[in-house]
């Protein structure tokens, strides 16, 4: 190099989303959507529990007293409703724990997210089963429609996101802690 030649240009800075070898990493791209789902799910589920178990919803055809009378008709056993409520509370806790692990980029997140989506589908199917198995409970057509839609959403989400968490290069490069 002579005194008249300019110095070589510096290498361009690495993309903030590029991992080792320039592959995508970090919570970006399509990975944002499951993160949003994890943020919204616990709050929406808690709201639904409050609406159904604490007070009858404004659009509900059944009063809270009718709801609890229906719960009592489950062969005189409120334990089934309490068990289902416990499962939903567990699902909320699992979602919150998964959310924390997600943003800490923990290595076990792909398995946790598969569990989250499988558990979401199982809870949706359990909800529908409770609504259809116990006709003494005050069930409206809107409740059955909502339960069916919940199953459909949960199954579609599982079918999309479980493979994504196991096959995506971004996921492999992001969850390394």
Structure in words:
The structure is a single chain. This protein is mainly α and 177 residues long. It contains 6 helices and no strands. The longest helix is centred in the last third of the chain and has 27 residues, at 141-167. It is elongated, with a radius of gyration of 23 Å. The mean pLDDT is 80.
Chart the SSEs and their pairings.
Elements: H1 32-54, H2 64-72, H3 79-103, H4 109-133, H5 141-167, H6 169-174
Helix pairs in contact: 1-3, 3-4, 4-5
Tell me the major beta sheet.
Answer: none
How many angstroms separate the termini?
Answer: 44 Å
pLDDT below 50 for ≥5 consecutive residues: which ranges?
none
Task: Kindly state the percentage of residues in helix.
Answer: 55-70%
Percent strand equals under 5%
Determine Rg (CA atoms, Å): 23 Å
Q: What series of H and E elements makes up the topology?
A: HHHHHH
Mean of the pLDDT scores? 80
What coarse outline follows from CA principal-axis ratios?
elongated
What count of domains describes the coordinates?
1
The count of helical stretches stands at: 6
Strand tally is: 0
Class derived from helix and strand content: mainly alpha
